[in-house]
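Inverse folding, one chain.
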């Protein structure tokens, strides 16, 4: 008799939790039902990261973990924010595919099946893309304006209308975990890493219970992290102002000089001085830009991202990444 030793692939699902006591049983029930559906082919682990919740979320997680050993959970000493909760989840995940999603049912668990299907086709990153969002008008408007602006200034193309509901392959995870920058903006980081990607579209419902953990303050911080981590544009603003000021100042200077020489107009000293000081102000802006370029490079360096990322290799020995001896 021949036995086929089949090792099931492992799917990790990471759930960041901040004051979600009412949602935890709901998402767990739905998620485990979906994951049990495919349990013939896949094992799963659900990783709860309790991000310093002030309600009974942690007790709820502990209760579930006693019932199901596939649940892994950690709790932070205080609220470190959504992106840090995701970081901890990624650090713990052991799966062949790793999924991150909201714990409030805004990211429908049944989409996971489509994501896994696409992943099995060999795609490394599968984003869930919102084709319709039910957030407040103000949130939609600010999000839209922000993403347009970020798109314009950032060095990487960050896919539109995607949040942190995504599946990544194990290969992508190890690269992602190698990026230890403190200002984390996963949407940008995942786009920066590269690899193949695809989308699964969905209409985003409202959260089932509780309130959003994203205050305006947290949202602004995330928006700034996104901007400063993926764009040097804010540093270049000084250059544009400097060039404008020097150009207009020089024109002004030329004009009054010509006027004084040709038309013999007698300009008082303060007018000459104002023009010259104005030009020097422009030069100062240019110097600020130079300074900014240096600071930008230090900023880039301290992020300690990998210098390059290898997606695949041929004829390289596994142990040290060097070419085999006979070559
Ligand atoms: N969250 C978190 N820490 C925070 C804020 C939010 O872990 O400081 C979690 C939250 O419990 C949820 C996910 O991150 O599972 C997304 O947050 P939320 O649903 O509040 O954001 P929204 O969907 O409103 O943008
Ligand atoms: Mg949500």
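Residues assigned per position:
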């Amino acid at each position: 008799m021949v036995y086929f030793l089949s090792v099931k692939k492992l799917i990790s699902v990471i759930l960041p939790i901040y004051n979600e006591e009412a949602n935890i049983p709901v998402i767990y029930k739905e998620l485990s039902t979906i994951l049990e559906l495919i349990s013939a082919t896949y094992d799963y682990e659900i990783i709860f990261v309790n991000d310093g919740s002030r309600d009974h979320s942690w007790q709820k997680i502990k209760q579930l973990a006693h019932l199901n050993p596939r649940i892994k959970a950690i709790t932070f000493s205080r609220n470190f924010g959504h992106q840090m909760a995701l970081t901890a989840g990624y650090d713990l995940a052991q799966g062949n595919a790793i999924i991150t999603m909201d714990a409030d049912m805004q990211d429908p668990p049944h989409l996971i099946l489509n994501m896994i299907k696409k992943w099995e086709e060999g795609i490394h990153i599968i984003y869930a893309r919102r084709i319709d969002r039910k957030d407040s008008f103000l949130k939609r408007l600010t999000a839209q304006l922000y993403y347009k602006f970020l798109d314009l200034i950032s060095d990487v193309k960050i896919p539109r209308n995607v949040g942190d509901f995504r599946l990544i392959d194990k290969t992508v995870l190890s690269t992602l975990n190698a990026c230890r920058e403190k200002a984390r903006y996963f949407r940008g980081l995942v786009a920066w890493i590269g690899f193949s990607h695809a989308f699964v579209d969905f209409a985003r419902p409202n959260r089932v219970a509780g309130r959003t953990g994203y205050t305006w303050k947290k949202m602004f911080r995330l928006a700034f992290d996104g901007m400063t981590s993926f764009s040097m544009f804010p540093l270049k603003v000084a250059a544009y102002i400097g060039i404008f000021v020097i150009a207009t100042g020089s024109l002004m200077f030329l004009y009054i000089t010509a006027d004084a020489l040709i038309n013999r107009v007698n300009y008082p000293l303060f007018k000459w001085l104002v023009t010259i000081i104005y030009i020097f102000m422009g030069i100062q802006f240019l110097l600020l830009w130079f300074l900014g370029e240096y600071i930008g490079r230090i900023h880039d360096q301290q992020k300690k991202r990998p210098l390059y990322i290898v997606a695949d290799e041929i004829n390289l020995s596994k142990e040290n990444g060097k070419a085999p001896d006979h070559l």
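The radius of gyration is 27 Å. The chain is about 50% helix and 15% strand.
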